[in-house]
Protein: Bifunctional RNase H/acid phosphatase
Amino acid sequence: MKLIIEADGGSRGNPGVAGSGTVVYDADRNVLREIAYVVGKRATNNVAEYHGMLRGLEAARELGASEVEIYLDSKLVVEQMSGRWKIKHPDMQKLAIEARKIMSTFDSVTFTWVPRAKNKAADALSNVAMDAAAAGHAPGVVGDESVGSASDQDPTVVPAAAGSAASAASAAQDDTTGMAADRSQPAANNPSHWTGASHPPTRFVLLRHGQTAMSVAKQYSGRSNPQLTELGLAQAKAAAEAIGERAGIDAVITSPLDRCRQTAELAAGVLGLEAIVHDDLIELDFGSWEGRTFQQAHAADPLIHEAWISDPSVTPPGGESLKSLDKRTRRIRRRLEADYAGRTVLVVSHVTPIKSFIRQAMGAGPKMFSRVFLDLASISVVEFFAEDARVDGCVRVVNDTAHLRRL
Structure:
């Protein structure tokens, strides 16, 4: 027997009160079970998503399935459970082991990523679970009076009072005016409520790489490829730990240069993710100014250098203009928005691409590039909204270096 599972999970606070939602269908898309599961009072989005998937597998086993198709809007869970990405986070490793034990009882199991808009039934159930968690419900299935660990719970249909999430989601497919639930924060704290956006924003946590010998010498370091210094590694580790404490990161994307890749690998290790390289996140090409200090570059090409500071269309000799960099940064930002819509992405890059993300979120002019200072291993946070919002983006944090105080 073939069964279809749609699963999702969320956390308010990330980590915070967390719940998962699961809908089990037969091959003809008739709803067999709807499961709202309270994960706990302090868990992350990713852990909650794993619970949604696991609850579906448990239900499929109980129903006697031989073939299972699982659909999630978490690329992380899909890639990890498909074996393409490693699972490093201890909590997710345990849940994956449980899942694979159940998967071994089926003839076949497939995992497929779907956009959040196609996963509204499971999303609605996860919000039922989070509401229950916030009201004091113990970990377990909403409507099930028993209490215990995930492995002790018997997935059951959500009580009728909760309504049919699958039916509600189907009706909501054509409703583009309502506010979609934000799984990461209560509505009052979510900027979506004033932007008019119908979907949660895509959040970018922007991490600048740690110190290199060229940054110590205050040299232009664009396409050069220096390694992190000992202090740079310590800075990157401190940033990784700070980001790990925040949790809720769905992907780690990095510039191809070693200083960023070293920084990204440390963060990815803490988060239990893989660092994915994107060339568009590389630093500005400074051309003949590469390896020179500000004063040396100005002495070599005073007119061009002076114009470059204030005009984003001016190109360093043999290099790349700020306008060109901003264009490619916008390209990768939009691609990541499409791939991780409504999620949180850690972007590890260089000072100029990060300023470009901030400029785009603010809707500011090119002067911003010379008016914002970003320390090594600093953290900034920006968000971008769907096309129906009143604004394109907003800035939450710029140049957070609190984590470096411990060094």
Notes: The two ends are 58 Å apart (CA to CA). Residues 2-182 form a domain with the Nucleotidyltransferase; domain 5 fold (CATH 3.30.420.10).
